[in-house]
Amino acid sequence: MFNNQFLMKSYIFLLCTSLLGVSCTSHQADTSTKVEAPIINNGGQQIIFKDNAMKSFFKTDKVSDGALSASYTAPGKIAATVVASVAGASQNVVLFDNPDLASSYTALAQHQTNIHQIQQINIKQKEIELERASDLLNHGAATGRDVLEAQTALASEKSNLANEKAALIQHEADLKQGGFNPEALRRAPVGKAYVICDIPENQISNIHEGAKCNITFSAYPNKTFTGVVEDVADVVDNITRMIKLRVSILGNSELLKAGMFAQASFDLKNTGDNITIGKESLITVDGKDYVFIKKGDGQFERKQIHTGQQIGERLVILDGLKPKDQVVTTGAIQLKGLSFGY
């Protein structure tokens, strides 16, 4: 209890000092002026300021009520392009910006070929040889050793098949972590370019497969390309909390090259009538979301809220606020310290 009281008094002292500093003009401050500390009631639920300098520090904004639309721009780059094979290969050639992904794709194609060879030819041949050896044994024309060797050869091919599939899974995982679907790459037509960009996980609900976006490139600042979201990755980065999007552009192979930097702009729309606030008003303590609303001259009240999706720089509020509430936009962090005692 002593430590909490000490921390609260220390925080009030620092807050008063900082706010007084903000309110100072070019005139020298009167050192005899006393700053009246804020009044904290109901366990931090209500905070009242008597000092005019402190009152003027806090800025508020009325919550928005209605449909909301915005856009989100995500940086990215062309991670791969599809070109025709000049060597007469049965599949098109995929040129990757990342050599590791290129290696994984090549290895994956080789393992797929090996699997087909083992399944459709090697194993079937060994099964025929085992059946023949068993038949010869039944007619006294072969020995048990011949049958055993045929069984061993068949088991060896099945083991090779399992190893090839295990290797295939690893290379497939590497490609998916890079934002690619191996099967989609195999079917991709000539002239398609893939842009990989990262978006925050709180925007996943706003961007979906099939959505169109506008893409610009540093190489062509005056030209806008249309892309289509082909896939949203299955993994969220554990550190950055970002998730990869794969956006495809078709029909500009002569302009777009792997490695080009891009900016993808997505339209974010919320068609419902919802209360929204700027994200700068939100504070989070112990997993719960709060805002501070202005109740009168220098009076602020802490309100717990439940948030929905984020549209651009604004948050949809599902519960806790009314349309005419004035929410603190500047000074929310300072009020958080006073309200919760740190």
Quick structural overview:
With 342 residues, the protein is α+β, with helices and mostly antiparallel strands. Helix content is 34%, strand content 38%. Keywords: Signal, Transport.
Descriptors:
342 residues, alpha+beta, conserved putative lor/sdh protein from methanococcus maripaludis s2 fold, Elongation Factor Tu (Ef-tu), domain 3, Helix Hairpins, 3 domains, six-stranded antiparallel beta barrel, elongated
Q: Can you offer a commentary on this structure?
A:
Keywords: Signal, Transport. This is RND family efflux transporter, MFP subunit. InterPro entries: Beta-barrel_RND_2, CzcB_C, MFP_Cation_Efflux. It comes from Olivibacter domesticus. By secondary structure, the protein is α+β, with helices and mostly antiparallel strands. The protein has three domains: about 1-70 and about 270-340, conserved putative lor/sdh protein from methanococcus maripaludis s2 fold (Beta Barrel), CATH 2.40.420.20; about 70-75 and about 190-270, Elongation Factor Tu (Ef-tu), domain 3, CATH 2.40.30.170; about 100-175, Helix Hairpins (Orthogonal Bundle), CATH 1.10.287. It is built from six helices and 15 strands. The strands form two sheets. Strands 4-6-9-8-7-10 form a six-stranded antiparallel β-barrel. Strand 7 (about 210-215) and strand 8 (about 220-235) form a beta hairpin. Helix 3 (about 100-140) packs antiparallel against helix 4 (about 145-175). The radius of gyration is 32 Å and the shape is elongated. It starts with a helix and ends with a helix.
